[in-house]
Amino acid sequence: MKDKMLDIISQPDMQQYTKTFASGVTLFLEGDHSQDMYILISGKLEIYKGDKKIAELEDPGSTAGELSYLFRSKRTATIKALNDVETIMIPADQIKNVLRKYPSIADEMTLRLAKRLEETTKIMHGLGEFNDRLPDAIIMADKDRNILSWNHAAESLHGRTWQQMKGYPLADLYQDSQAYEQFVSDVQAGNSLQEKEMVVKHPDGNKRFVSTSTTVLYDGHHNVEGFIFLSRDVTNIKDLEKKIQTDKEMANPIYCTFLCNYNIPFFHPSIFLQRKQNSRL
Predict the structure, then answer these.
(1) What's the average model confidence in pLDDT over 122-135?
(2) What is the 3-state secondary structure (H, E, C) of the chain?
C-alpha cells in the first residue's frame, strides 16, 4: 500500500496540489471547519490535541485531515510542520474526483481509519476499566453538558446506571439545578474555584452531599468541546459536622449550669491568655 501511495503522489497530475510548509507552520487547527486533505511527501508533521502533542507523521504517503472530509465535521486535532514539509494538499471540492481516479488513496484512508478505531477502542476499554476502579464518581459530558459516560462510582452515588442516564442533562442530577449551572458558568469564566459542594437527587429520596469539581475541554479555538466532572460523596462528613454542632449547642447550657450550681466562676479562654501575657511583662 505504501508503494502505491508513493506512486500516486509522484503522478504528474498530482503535482498541481503540491504545497510546502516551513518549520513551525500550522496546517490546520483543531476545531477548524476546513476539509482539505493532505498526503505527506517529505518532512515530519506533529499532531496536537489542545496543547498536548499526541503523535507524529513522517512516512511519505501518510494522509492527514481525511476524517473531517469523511465525517463532514470540524478538525479533531491540530497539525503543525515539525520541519520543512512538502505535501499534496487536495482541496475538499476535488477529493471526490481524486479518489475516483486513484482508489488506492481510499484504501489507505480506510486502513488508517480502521487502525485508529481499533486503537481508540483499546484505549477507551482500558480507560473505562481504570475509571471503574476509582473511588470517586467521574462523569464525561458533551459541550451541552449532556451525559456521555460515567463510572461505577457515579452509578453508586447517583443510584442510576449509565444506560439510564446516557444523553440526559447533567443538571437533572442536582437538587438546585440553577446553582449547578451558575457553578459551571463561573468555572468557564474563571470566576470561581473549581470545586463546590452541592446536593444531588437520589432515587431513594435521601440527600447526597457531593463535592464536585470540573475540567472544561477546549478545542484549538478555545471553543468548549466537553466537560469532565469529578464528584466525591461528602454526606457522612456533613452529617458529622452537623452532629458536632448540635452536641456543642447542647453542651454549652449544661456546662454553664454546672458552673453556676457549684459557684465556680466562668472565665472565657481569652481571659487566661490575657493574664498569661500580662505575667510575662
Answers:
(1) 74
(2) CHHHHHHHHCCHHHHHHEEEECCCCEEECCCCCCCCEEEEEECCEEEEECCEEEEEECCCCCEECHHHHHHCCCCCCEEEECCCEEEEEECHHHHHHHHHHCHHHHHHHHHHHHHHHHHHHHHHHHHHHHHHCCCCEEEEEECCCEEEEECHHHHHHHCCCHHHHCCCEHHHHECCHHHHHHHHHHHHHCCCCCEEEEEECCCCCCCEEEEEEEEEEECCCCCEEEEEEEEEECHHHHHHHHHHHHHHHHHHHHHHHHHHHCCCCCCCHHHHHHHHHHHHC
